[in-house]
């Protein structure tokens, strides 16, 4: 067919991205070719960009196509694809979100239902973009979904703008709470009210949590958490030491939380987060993604004597995207949710500036690559 699309290739920390044109291949049987509308710069992208992950840094020497928090529409359907992964009719032009990874369905974790722990779940992301189908990451005009990769049509009334954080920040927060088993009436503490934490506040309320407490050091983030339904906030700067914060949370929750979700990304908060739990509580570790500066200490007795569960969560079960999109659709007029998806827009050729912005800017909104600008029609 002769069409080409742009991809911004990463060659390692400190090096500029290189825009390369690749041929756009027709999707094979069971595959979907997406034309991307927006891709945000996620915290994990920033870690790779800064060279904080030696494995990724090695792979980048040959060129990597990063980018995964993305939304787009169907460009072409491969043969046999007539519906999305939820069984809804799917046609060219439909706005879609998709899981940026694909559980294999056959390994032990997959067959036991823990698909986000699949042994090869990330394999698809690290394929060399120089080889077909080229569009294996989302800092590009197109994305080539593999057979079986979860794809969901956005419901009527939802535009790609509304789904901008669905497949990473919003879904990840939802998965953390799901693994924490948040049930109706439970008391939930969210450590860190950045992008992930704010979606977690909204998700916890939607799951029926009886009380949600947000903990952060920035007043505007705490105000946003309150606007999204947090019942109480704890401003870290008002309490000089962790013990003061623990006391405050235990007071607010009447003896401790049922679930604490860590999305602050600072190892020092884990110990105090565990102490914020009631007996039998669940601690969900999701925020420490920097290799080497991820080590925390928790006294074993603080866990075992009080029957605390400590659970690590990465990625999510793609099936939850339906619930996540439902939440984002219902909240599409919410000012905080709208603001989270309204980070500064950059054309793909300005991706280096977008990354610099992501590093310098501490607001919860992620910079967004607007792939309609300068891309193929
Ligand atoms: Zn992400
Ligand atoms: Zn698997």
From TrEMBL:
Catalytic reactions on record: a secondary alcohol + NAD(+) = a ketone + NADH + H(+); a primary alcohol + NAD(+) = an aldehyde + NADH + H(+)
Entry EC number(s): 1.1.1.1
Single GO MF annotation: alcohol dehydrogenase (NAD+) activity
Cofactor: Zn(2+)
Keyword field: Metal-binding, Oxidoreductase, Zinc
Keyword Flavoprotein (UniProt): no
Gene3D superfamilies, A to Z: Medium-chain alcohol dehydrogenases, catalytic domain (3.90.180.10), NAD(P)-binding Rossmann-like Domain (3.40.50.720)
Uppermost EC category: oxidoreductase
GO terms for cellular component: cytoplasm
Superkingdom to which the source organism belongs: Bacteria
Protein's UniProt name: alcohol dehydrogenase
Organism: Pseudonocardia petroleophila
Lineage: Bacteria, Bacillati, Actinomycetota, Actinomycetes, Pseudonocardiales
């Amino acid at each position: 067919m002769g069409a080409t699309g742009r991809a911004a290739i990463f060659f390692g920390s400190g090096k500029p991205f290189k825009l390369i044109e690749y041929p756009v291949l027709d999707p094979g049987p069971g595959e979907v070719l997406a034309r991307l509308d927006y891709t945000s710069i996620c915290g994990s992208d920033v870690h790779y960009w800064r060279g904080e992950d030696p494995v990724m840094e090695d792979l980048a020497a040959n060129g990597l196509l990063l980018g995964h928090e993305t939304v787009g529409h169907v460009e072409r359907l491969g043969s046999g694809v007539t519906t999305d992964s939820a069984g809804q009719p799917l046609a060219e032009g439909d706005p879609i979100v998709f899981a940026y990874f694909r559980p294999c369905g056959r390994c032990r974790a997959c067959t036991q239902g823990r698909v986000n722990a699949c042994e090869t779940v990330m394999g698809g992301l690290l394929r060399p973009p120089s080889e077909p189908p080229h569009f294996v990451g989302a800092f590009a005009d197109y994305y080539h979904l593999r057979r079986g990769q979860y794809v969901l049509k956005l419901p009527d009334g939802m535009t790609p703008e509304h789904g901008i954080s669905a497949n990473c920040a919003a879904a990840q927060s939802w998965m953390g709470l799901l693994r924490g088993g948040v049930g109706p009436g439970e008391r939930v503490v969210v450590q860190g009210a950045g992008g992930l934490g704010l979606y977690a506040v909204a998700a916890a309320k939607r799951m029926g949590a009886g009380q949600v407490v947000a903990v952060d050091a920035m007043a505007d983030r705490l105000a946003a958490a309150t606007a999204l339904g947090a019942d109480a906030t704890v401003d870290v700067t008002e309490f000089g030491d962790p013990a003061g914060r623990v006391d405050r949370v235990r007071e607010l929750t009447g003896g401790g939380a049922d679930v604490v979700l860590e999305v602050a990304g600072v190892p020092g908060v884990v110990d105090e987060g565990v102490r914020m739990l009631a007996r039998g509580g669940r601690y969900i570790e999701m925020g420490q993604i920097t290799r080497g500066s991820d080590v925390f200490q928790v006294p074993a007795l603080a866990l075992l004597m009080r029957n605390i569960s400590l659970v690590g969560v990465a990625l999510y079960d793609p099936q939850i995207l339906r619930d996540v999109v439902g939440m984002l659709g219902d909240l599409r007029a919410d000012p905080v949710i709208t603001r989270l998806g309204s980070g500064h827009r950059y054309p793909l050729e300005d991706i280096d500036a977008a990354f610099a912005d992501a590093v310098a800017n501490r607001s919860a909104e992620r910079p967004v690559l607007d792939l309609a600008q300068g891309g193929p029609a």
